[in-house]
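Support request, please re-run this one:
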Amino acid sequence: MALTPQNNDAFFREVSEELRRDRMTDFMTRYGKILGVVIVVGLIALGGWLWWQHDQATKAGADGEALSQVLRDVSEGKSDGATAKLDALAKSDRAGYRAASQLTLADLALEKNDEKGAIARFKAVAADESVGQPYRDVALIRQTALEYDSLKPQDVIARLKGLAVAGNPWFGSAGEMVAVAHLRLNQNAEAGKLFAAIAKDTQVPESLRSRAVQMAGVLGVDAVPADAPAAAGGDRKE
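Re-run finished. Output below.
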């Protein structure tokens, strides 16, 4: 007896369901253990990552508290035991705390007239590529300032040329050292341009701008800033 269309539909649905069940059973038979292992490994990895995050946060908090306490002690003149604590923090896995500790140790060395020790600390931070660029820049500026008299002018220019550009936070300090290096090489035109740029940069500290105006004037470069007050008794034209 032939099947009616309704019976045909019901028959095909039953066959399709049976095929799906067979495929799923076959898939789980073949790959069920592998899937189970993958899921377990994934859960272990997730748990390990969450633990690592918590552990890093805990250690960072401990280092931060330790550094804050040491800096408080130093500011209050209690620096006797600070060096040992800072030495420990200078080996921290967290770059920011490591750099801050090294810079503080360098300053403490300078207080004891230990320039070589300070230079070594600044140099270590400046060369540490895992440390943030602001730390490296300030360390390079401080290192260069201490070594300035013993450096060749061309070495100063090469070392600081990346910082001696308008817009850089260290333009004033780096630019002044580079300009003087140009003077030592009898490159007066380059020095004059740099002094003029420093003088006209309102982001540079006023003391540096004043010196730059004077030096540029000596070199025959007009470097009077646009925001300079008009001379007494004179009229300033707009």
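Residues 176 and 195 are 7 Å apart (CA to CA). Residues 151-225 form one domain.
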